[in-house]
Amino acid sequence: MAESILSAEYFHNEEAAYEFVEGKLWPAGEQVCPHCGAVCQHYKLKGKSTRPGVYKCKDCRKPFTVKVGTIFESSHIPLRLWLQAIYLIASSKKGISANQLHRTLGITLKSAWFMGHRIREAMRELNPDIMGGSGSTAEMDETFVGGKEKNKHASKRDGSKRGGSGKEAVFSLVERGGKVRSHHVPVVNSDTLAPILKAQIAADTFVVTDDNRTSRRTAKVAGFKTDSVNHSIGEYVRGEVHTNTIEGYFSILKRGITGTYHHVSAEHLKRYLGEFDFRYNERKALGVDDKQRAELLLKGVVGKRLTYATPARGSA
């Protein structure tokens, strides 16, 4: 019987956890001093410090660890627990709640909530490549995230019968056989969506929409060759023209938010979208298993410093 990945030493031993992270973030053992930028001009303070993984730069003489400049910086949570949390979030198709992390890892709920947001920040693509191209097909659609009006307190209902009433709008683009990009948008119209479409999708990509007038207009305004399916008359597939791929992604997103997180605030929605996008883009169908996905997530921790005040106040 195969050994459980959770029995790996770096999940249980702090020294091993530092060595594992160093191996992923410092390829070929090239330790980089975050203070002066010197490479490989350091020595390890083994036996001279109570903290594991501490190096001292031979140039500027300042100590540092692999955590500096990452989402782990200044965290008092052991690095081995960070690695456990990263694996749990990366391998849970519909996410894992802060309460579950709190119970599983034995940390406070406040720490688990903050840890989850830091990890989601590491999952976000900051400089994504253009999707699609000649011979490629992309699907575009929008959905709305939030509670149903009938389930809200009477004082919080706006009285509208629209499906998106009181909810946050999410606009997504997916390349068939490739990646998805999701955006939290203030309003769904061609003025808002067309710039996103042109920035994210190559001009020679064939774009498929549903019969929503805004989607069809957006694709045309952006100058794409496009076609659509008419859901209102029961048409869902016409040859290669369908939106089943993006609808499948939305089903995962909705089940995760409704079943795991229950409520996602507008301020933090972009990070949750980054989380679901990341897992979809590094999915099993593209040859990425849970272990590889967790390691890819780990490589995204650099340069994404996030303090507690940032997510707590709903900024950035």
Explain this structure to me?
The protein has a five-stranded mixed sheet with strand order 6-5-4-7-8, with helices on both faces. Helix 2 (79-91) packs across helix 9 (290-298) and helix 5 crosses helix 6 (213-221). Strand 9 (237-238) and strand 10 form a beta hairpin. The radius of gyration is 22 Å and the shape is globular. It has 316 residues and is of the alpha+beta class. The protein is 35% helix and 13% strand.
Using brief descriptors, characterize the structure shown.
35% helix; alpha+beta; 316 residues; three-stranded antiparallel β-sheet; single chain
List the helices and strands and how they pair.
Elements: H1 14-25, E1 42-44, E2 55-57, E3 63-64, H2 79-91, H3 98-105, H4 109-123, E4 137-145, E5 168-175, E6 180-185, H5 190-200, E7 206-209, H6 213-221, E8 226-228, E9 237-238, E10 241-242, H7 244-261, H8 269-281, H9 290-298, H10 309-312
Parallel strand pairs: 4-7, 7-8
Antiparallel strand pairs: 1-2, 2-3, 4-5, 5-6, 9-10
Helix pairs in contact: 2-9, 3-4, 4-8, 5-6, 7-8
